[in-house]
């Protein structure tokens, strides 16, 4: 296997990181807890998964947990090459196979290239985890520029359409799609107007795509995390004031860790959830939400 893209393809989809987001986990202190908590039991043996935003945070925890459970993993990420390489090493340390794939999934060609490489490397595709996302805090709606609004929707929801479109022909009966929505879809967020709006769209997309694919034996579900300690918030995705008390307003009084969220993705990816589609799981520290 190789981690290198065709140069022409890479030149087209290699992103320009304009604002420092989503940030490097290697620079974050304290480090998030991504380590799987339990021995694997082969629940994803023989499966192949694409995990977007898998260089760090929730995506890394999901990728490594999937590898522990026997899946081969395509590690999709924007441009944090050092973090992504570590995720690949961690997956391989679990005895599985993985490759890294940089690119901006807001570009439809990136999703097509990612799926093509996955099929070329592993010969099949069973699980798509749409986890990649970005957020930008703004206290006044007038501060949200058209460029930011379009970019947030492009990254958070358009990318999911593009990737599923590219993956659809390869997803057979028994396949699973898991989308990452957010507690902000249910509660709202005064400082994350555009981000929260995309998460509402993701939940609607999850339910509608489930209705569209369930007849073909493909299940579509989502996970709606609460405040989780990842690079997304401390690297510019939250205001300094919010970071001072990040997660303290949950019933548990603390932010969650990525390895407290990853098992929800595993449950929805494997046969343990064979009678679930169109549903959302809520690892959020005990906050009660409807839906």
TrEMBL record:
Keyword DNA damage listed? The answer is no
Which residues span the membrane? none
SUPFAM superfamilies given in the database record: NAD(P)-binding Rossmann-fold domains
Keyword vocabulary terms for this entry: Oxidoreductase
Q: Name one Pfam family in it.
A: adh_short_C2
Per its UniProt entry, which superkingdom is the organism in? Bacteria
**What Gene3D superfamilies does this protein map onto?**
NAD(P)-binding Rossmann-like Domain (3.40.50.720)
- Region annotated Disordered sits at 16-35
Instruction: State the similarity comment.
Output: Belongs to the short-chain dehydrogenases/reductases (SDR) family.
Q: What is this protein called?
A: SDR family oxidoreductase
Q: Which organism is it from?
A: Novosphingobium tardum
Q: Which lineage ranks, top first, belong to the organism behind this chain?
A: Bacteria, Pseudomonadati, Pseudomonadota, Alphaproteobacteria, Sphingomonadales
